[in-house]
């Protein structure tokens, strides 16, 4: 597959892709006494492969991909019926993922999960704290193995045991020791009886991630209340495919509330080197939102925000990053508002809405009027800096 010539001098890094967890990810690494309790795939009463944890059915063990085994792409709700045996091996196999990346012209990919929610929020369904933590640790061990086996071309984000800040800090430090480059977590621990992320309770976590240089990644749909494709978002009269389109479109915007809360709670003021990534949310809405938050700050009574040293928009420019994939207009305004070093390219491979197989063609159209330095930033250099991803030296550099 030909790579657009404007990316000849770029090592492209795809900042949002997903792993269809192999069915033996946990069972092959489980201590003997936990082998029957940790996540494994068993047939349900209808014979459907299902993730089962400690005897409880968690979710269908589907393919979690819209790319079929032959490389063709399915659309709409058709992917619901695909099992792991039906989807392209690049969804779950390291070697096949690397081969696919080579075909598409992508040097490295950031990897996010499926089975326990896009922000790990579904870990809450595991009642046993010991089992819950072991599930996280084995996942992170597997992700570190993947990163090593891919020679740093697959860069998974570490899952966070978000239900206890001390446990979370310990796992952040362990994940960093394993070589993992960022943290993926839920946006809403308060929905599970914990303090919200703006409370001082979480200060040790922000301090640890700041000191270790690990960005916090908030993927869309990282809370139970956000992942609503077919519930209240689409009107009842719509068909399933139409509800999927409406729900997915609204899902992109859910991260706006998380970013606003991170600013107005003072987290970014207290931890000025902490970096936040809004994943799979797009960037076109961000200039408006930055202006909206500045405007709303100006509408508050004097003294209300004395604990902030800057307007809300300045925290965005200093500490918040976001990703684009299908957008072909509005990038110039986002770059002007957020800065060219805070926007990254993604494809969402192999999920619904992914731009496979022509993600680079769409990006080339969107970036054609920008100078080479800005293109390099968005398509790879920003992600390489943020996640400490090594890339080969460019010829002539």
UniProtKB/TrEMBL annotation:
SUPFAM superfamilies: Metallo-dependent hydrolases. GO terms for cellular component: cytoplasm. Transmembrane segments: none annotated. Keywords: Lyase. Residues 135-388 form the Amidohydrolase-related domain. GO terms for biological process: secondary metabolic process. One of its GO terms (molecular function) is carboxy-lyase activity. InterPro entries: ACMSD (IPR032465), Amidohydro-rel (IPR006680), Metal_Hydrolase (IPR032466). It comes from the Bacteria. It holds the Pfam family Amidohydro_2. This is Amidohydrolase-related domain-containing protein. It comes from Mycolicibacterium vanbaalenii.
